[in-house]
Design brief:
The complex is a heterodimer.
Chain A: H1 2-14, H2 21-31, H3 35-49, H4 54-84, H5 90-93, H6 112-127, H7 129-148, H8 154-173, H9 175-191
Chain B: H1 7-32, H2 46-67, H3 78-99, E1 118-119, E2 125-129, E3 138-142, H4 153-161, E4 165-170, H5 184-196, E5 203-208, H6 210-220, E6 227-231, H7 252-261, H8 264-271, H9 273-280, E7 284-289, H10 298-306, E8 310-314, H11 319-346
Parallel strand pairs in B: 3-4, 3-5, 5-6, 6-7, 7-8
Antiparallel strand pairs in B: 1-2, 2-4
Classes of the chains: A mainly alpha, B alpha/beta.
């Protein structure tokens, strides 16, 4: 039932591919492995150096450390999921897919890029709202473009978002443990004048 | 082992990251006031910084897409992308820090010329400047130990213009040392009070930076001090910056030297200016800015305000701007206001 709905949604979005050169070109700009992840990580660079006073700076640097930790944990969880569950890519599993990207060989679910984007995006959102919203929008656009390009089902994207987002949220709630690790990292970096 | 294949994609990606990270670092430095990271060593106007960022983002992405036809093919994997991103960001940071070397350094330590000055203790001197008319009182001015001695000259001139005699302390060629420093204010009062005229009507102590902490501590132990002004003080060792915030005031090599120059933390800890503030209550006034790169005394401010201390926050500006540009005006205002209050109480 869920898989049928997932396929219907996939056809709905992927069916739009190839109709407009402009939209396809836009999708190619978003779907590739370089531009969107770079933009998301640049938001972390921005946070690291911005902050109008000491309090805001501390909050921002803590957010960056949280985001890096969340990305790392989410990636480990994703690898574990991939070891136990493999879902074939849509272009391998269903007919009539409009593929406008290369053929990734790893498991389709959960979406690896969306897991990364939401782990970082939710971490940023919990520390700094506006850059967080921007990161989440970039992540959502990246996920949508993956479906549009024929490399993910919508459910893969949702699973990736849930996995990345929940790991980031869970880590932010582990305030005691995370705070002590974070403070050690940050005080060492501050002594070296890099934080 | 990194597999940077295709090599030209890795090269183009590295260039993309250098350009966009440079734009982001420059824009963030402009917003956060980090002169030591800003190419040219002076803060860029916000509009210019945002414009440069947009140009870097759009130009970098356009160049990458046009010059890298294989960007939609299987290429660099996650580890390689992280390595290239890290290398590009480090290059952009190195370029920013190199550009920030042009940032003017805060005053180096220089021994004051002893001519016309009254010796205090530990090689310290005090010079008296008097207004032409009978002084309304005596102001003891404690300059910032982290800035050049000349930094306090505009404030001294403002004090004299306000009709007060000004006892200007000059530090020795070494940093203030606890507990010797506690003797500076009483000795300056004793030497200059005698020269300023018979029993000055009003005694004010003004201190800058860590000398602000010293002023607060000295004033709380002397009931004759009617008013103490601390401009950009630390108010405790926890407020002393040690990270990137120092780049608001200077370049990276200067920041390294600044941190090692003298024991600010121990000095501030022993002065316990936060406690002195609670004892001074209405006699103390503070002037601070969130943009101060040397000290971030946010934690103590709430307590100080509760004690009735007059706390004034200026719009974000650096420690040096606060001492050099804003202090003379603020001191004139404070002295005028305290004079009016005195006149009202006399009536």
């Amino acid at each position: 039932m869920l898989q049928a709905l997932d396929r219907q949604l996939f056809y709905l979005v992927n069916g739009l591919a190839g109709r407009s050169e402009l939209v396809d070109a836009l999708a190619r700009l978003v779907v590739n492995d370089y531009l969107v992840p770079t933009a998301i990580v640049l938001l972390l660079v921005w946070l690291w150096f911005s902050g109008r006073d000491g309090g805001e700076r501390r909050r921002h640097t803590a957010t960056v450390v949280n985001a890096v930790a969340a990305q790392f944990v989410a990636n480990v969880v994703l690898k574990l999921v991939n070891l136990t569950y493999f879902r074939p890519r849509p272009f391998d599993a269903v007919p009539g897919v409009n593929l406008i990207f290369y053929r990734p060989w790893d498991s389709s679910c959960p979406s690896n890029p969306v897991t990364f984007a939401f782990a970082v995006g939710v971490s940023i959102y919990l520390g700094a709202r506006k850059p967080g919203i921007l990161a989440l929008c970039l992540g959502a656009a990246w996920g949508l473009s993956r479906v549009y390009s024929g490399v993910h089902y919508p459910l893969d994207v949702l699973a990736g978002a849930a996995l990345g987002g929940s790991v980031a949220y869970w880590l932010s709630r582990r305030s005691g443990t995370m705070a002590s690790i974070r403070e050690r990292v940050l005080s060492a970096l501050r002594r070296g004048l890099v934080a | 082992m990194l597999n940077l294949y295709p090599a030209y994609v890795a090269r183009h990606y590295y260039l993309l990251v250098v350009v966009v990270a440079l734009g982001v670092i420059q824009a963030a430095a402009s917003v956060a006031g980090l002169r030591g990271l800003q190419i040219g060593g002076r803060l860029w106007r916000r509009e210019f910084a945002w414009g440069a960022l947009c140009l870097c983002l759009a130009g970098g992405a356009a160049r990458f897409v046009v010059a890298t036809p294989d960007y939609l093919s299987p290429g660099l994997a996650g580890t390689e992308l992280i390595a290239m991103f890290g290398a590009g960001t480090m290059t952009a940071l190195a370029l920013s820090l190199a550009g920030g070397l042009l940032c003017p350094a805060p005053g180096r330590w220089r021994a004051p010329a002893p001519q016309g000055q009254q010796p205090l203790v530990g090689g310290c001197y005090c010079r008296l400047e008097r207004p032409p008319e009978t002084p309304r009182g005596l102001v003891v001015l404690l300059p910032d130990p982290d800035l050049a001695p000349e930094a306090v000259a505009p404030t001294a001139a403002a004090v004299v213009r306000s009709g007060f005699a000004c006892g200007l302390v000059s530090w020795a060629d070494d940093s203030p040392v606890y507990p010797d420093a506690l003797a500076y204010v009483p000795m300056a009062v004793s030497r200059c009070g005698h020269c300023a005229g018979p029993q000055p009507a009003m005694l004010v102590v003004i201190g800058f930076g860590l000398a602000g902490d010293l002023a607060l501590r000295a004033a709380c132990e002397d009931e004759h001090v009617s008013l103490v002004l601390a401009i950009a003080p630390a108010l405790g060792p926890q407020s002393i910056s040690e990270g990137l915030l120092l780049l608001r005031e200077m370049s990276l090599p200067e920041a390294w030297r600044w941190r090692r120059r003298w024991g600010r933390r121990a000095f501030a800890q022993r002065l316990r200016a936060g406690e002195a503030l609670a004892r001074l209550r209405g006699r103390a006034a503070l002037c601070l800015s969130h943009g101060d790169g040397f000290f971030q005394p946010d934690g103590v401010i709430g307590e100080a305000a509760l004690c009735g201390t007059d706390v004034r926050f200026l719009s974000p500006c650096s420690h040096q701007e606060l001492v050099l540009k804003h202090a003379p005006r603020l001191v004139s205002e404070w002295l005028a206001r305290s004079g009016e209050a005195d006149a009202a109480s006399a009536r």
